[in-house]
Write a structure and sequence with these properties.
With 343 residues, the protein is of the alpha/beta class. Helix content is 36%, strand content 30%. α4 crosses α5. It folds into 2 domains: 246 residues, Rossmann fold (3-Layer(aba) Sandwich); 87 residues, Alpha-Beta Plaits, CATH 3.30.70.260. It binds adenosine-5'-triphosphate (ATP) and magnesium ion. Magnesium ion binds next to α1.
Length: 343
């Protein structure tokens, strides 16, 4: 079931100066976020990702279109009802946005105060949340006494305080080093598994998508240009922008300078094999080569990764032997859609 549905949603900001066009930050976006999923929204800077997040949690009104969150059409709610609806969505940020003058415990307690919960309930909930994020021994510390990863764990505890069904994370790991990023992602993964919280992660880091997302939405110039399950989308990207993102993860050939060095060492004809989960193109190619006299197949470069635990990437082979044998072999090999010659 879709927990978040957007139908033809646009957001225009007034023109920055007179005579200029308004800025269409989000342009006719339709999408569904499945309940219980971890959905990543990717796109380059200015694509409209943060604006989309602010529309979903009703921090800003849409210019047109319809947004339904958890059965409520938020594009039709009064300001008072919106305030209630916002309690259903937790939010975490790149810069953590903690209250520096308040302790860790007070930060986590803050949304519970806003929601009018009584003291006993607040205390118990704060304790429970700090235990969950592994920071109960830091409850009296101030944010400045914490590392970035710890700050984000406080941010997550605070976002979960009112037991929202949805957690929106806008570049929540972009200020963290790779190891701390993985820790925070592991925590988000637990939030999803243990509490069934649906998570929407806005990011430009492919490693984030690869590690925890099951669905991906690709944005460009305010539009959603591609969306689907992460493995399907990345193993068979249809849009250039998606291909560019995938190339930061795995690529058929190494970067240009390395490729030139490789070329100098391997002047023969090159075949690139796309490796997909459960696919046999690579085995087929190696068997075919073994059956040919006077033909040699050498693996010279590989970029294989995993997405959602499934293998995906490329292998680069040099084919050597007498010219006609090589030509015939390559002509047959490229019949396989996952094999192509690299110039
Ligand atoms: N409050 C605003 N007023 C005017 N223009 C805005 C406002 N917020 C965003 N924009 C414009 O809308 C477009 C999309 O911005 P947005 O912040 O949503 O992009 P983003 O994908 O989150 O980028 P980044 O990766 O840099 O965070 C940009 O052209 C931006 O300048
Ligand atoms: Mg942004």
């Amino acid at each position: 079931m879709a927990l978040i549905t957007l139908n033809g949603v646009s957001k225009a900001y007034p023109a920055p100066k007179r005579g200029a066009e308004p800025i269409l930050a989000v342009d006719d976006v339709s999408l569904e976020v499945e309940e219980g999923s971890i959905t990543a929204v990717i796109g380059y800077s200015g694509a409209g990702k943060s604006t989309l997040a602010r529309l979903i949690n009703a921090l800003e009104p849409a210019t047109s279109g319809r947004i339904v969150v958890d059965g409520r059409e938020i594009t039709a709610l009064s300001e008072r009802d919106l305030r209630r609806a916002r309690l259903d969505i937790g939010m975490i940020f790149q810069q953590f946005n903690l209250l520096e003058s308040k302790t860790v415990a007070k930060n986590v307690e803050f949304p519970l105060r806003v929601a009018g919960r009584d003291r006993g309930e607040r205390r118990a909930r704060v304790q429970e949340l700090l235990d969950f994020v592994g920071l109960s021994d830091r409850s009296r510390n101030y944010p400045e006494q914490l590392s970035g990863g710890q700050k984000q764990r406080v941010g997550i505890a605070r976002a979960l305080a009112t037991s929202p069904r949805i957690l929106l994370a806008d570049e929540a790991t972009s200020a963290l080093d790779p190891e701390t990023t993985q820790e925070v992602l592991a925590l988000l993964s637990r939030v999803n598994r243990e509490f069934g919280v649906t998570i929407v992660i806005i990011t430009h880091e492919m490693d984030v998508v690869r590690s925890i997302a099951d669905h991906v939405v690709v944005m460009e110039h305010g539009r959603v240009v591609e969306q689907g399950e992460v493995y399907d989308t990345f193993s068979n990207p249809k849009q250039n922008v998606t291909r560019r993102f995938v190339r930061t993860l795995v690529s058929p050939t190494p970067p240009e300078t390395e490729m030139q060095e490789l070329r100098a060492l391997h002047p023969g004809r090159l075949l690139s094999v796309r490796v997909l989960d459960g696919d046999t193109a690579q085995k087929g190619l190696e068997h075919a080569a073994a059956d040919r006299d006077g033909l040699d197949l050498e693996l010279i470069y590989g970029g294989v990764s995993t997405i959602q635990g499934r293998g995906f990437g490329y292998l680069l082979y040099e084919v050597t032997g007498s010219t006609p044998v090589v030509a015939e072999f390559i002509a047959a090999a490229v019949d396989d859609a996952n094999i192509e010659e690299v110039a």
